[in-house]
Write a structure and sequence with these properties.
There is one protein chain. By secondary structure, the chain is of the alpha+beta class. Helix content is 62%, strand content 15%. The protein contains 6 helices and 7 strands. The chain has a 4-stranded antiparallel β-sheet with strand order 1-2-3-4, with helices on one face. It has a 3-stranded antiparallel β-sheet with strand order 5-6-7, with helices on one face. Strand 6 and strand 7 form a beta hairpin. The longest helix is centred in the first third of the chain and has 54 residues. The chain is elongated.
């Protein structure tokens, strides 16, 4: 059964090939397919091949030029989006990257986020803050103070118990977190000091990118030039004229006009 299917499939393919050849070289089946008529078919086949080759070259050139336009447009859009994101990140820095957490506090690049017992949160901005630790009998106290000395206190109960029963915080953990907050404050102060100039530069860079269309314009001009050259392609026009002459000659001999 499988063998019969293969044979039938092969026969169908062969039949289609003969049909396609007969359409391309109309007149008689012998003229279309038999080897002894190869020389009769050659002028028409060669004329077709010449046209197809030149058309493929033209399509390839236009496709490459069109792809370069798309690439330059995409590159410019990506640059503009990156520049816009840069400006936005300086205009509204937000919290920034998460740096760590301890108890009720989560440290980000620009703020401390404090969570209360109800789960609500509020931001404590880092700029111009000072950090201090006090140790009590039952807890450590982390103070994040505003410039005028107003404190934001967070309590860390001392560690009790061992192993899985342990609760609370060690002094080392609290001091390490306090040091991380101090470093973040220092970076935030430097960030805020440089922010006006960095924002001005980012805005200027974005404006330059918005004005710079040179690469896109150059790619579009090249694409237009390729299209114009192909439209007036003398070699392709001559090849098409030769194909038309070969088709007419075929009709003169067979009475049937072949397709291009």
């Amino acid at each position: 059964m499988a063998y019969l299917i293969v044979v039938l499939f092969a026969a169908a393919l062969a039949g289609w090939a003969v049909y396609a050849r007969a359409r391309r070289f109309p007149g008689s089946l012998a003229l279309a397919v038999l080897p002894r008529h190869a020389e009769d078919r050659r002028p028409l086949a060669q004329a077709r091949a010449n046209v197809r080759s030149l058309e493929e070259i033209a399509r390839s050139e236009e496709s490459a030029a069109r792809a370069e336009v798309a690439r330059q447009e995409q590159k410019r859009e990506q640059g503009l989006r990156a520049a816009a994101r840069r400006v936005a990140s300086l205009e509204k820095p937000g919290r920034g990257k998460r740096l760590g957490a301890l108890g009720e506090l989560t440290l980000y690049e620009h703020v401390l986020v404090k969570r209360d017992t109800n789960g609500a949160t509020r931001n404590v901005h880092l700029a111009d803050r000072r950090v201090r630790i006090d140790a009590g009998d039952s807890a450590y106290y982390l103070y994040v103070l505003e410039a005028d000395g107003t404190p934001e206190r967070t309590d860390y109960p001392r560690r009790t118990g061992e192993g899985e029963e342990a609760k609370g915080f060690t002094e080392d953990r609290v001091r390490d977190f306090a040091d991380a907050v101090r470093r973040a404050v220092a970076r935030e102060n430097a960030f805020r000091a440089a922010l006006p100039e960095r924002l001005k530069q980012a805005q200027h860079d974005r404006e330059l990118l918005e004005q710079d269309t040179e690469a896109v314009d150059r790619a579009r001009e090249r694409h237009a030039g390729v299209r114009a050259r192909n439209k007036d392609n003398r070699r392709l026009a001559e090849a098409r004229a030769e194909l038309e002459a070969a088709r007419l000659e075929w009709r003169r001999h067979t009475g049937r006009m072949p397709p291009p």
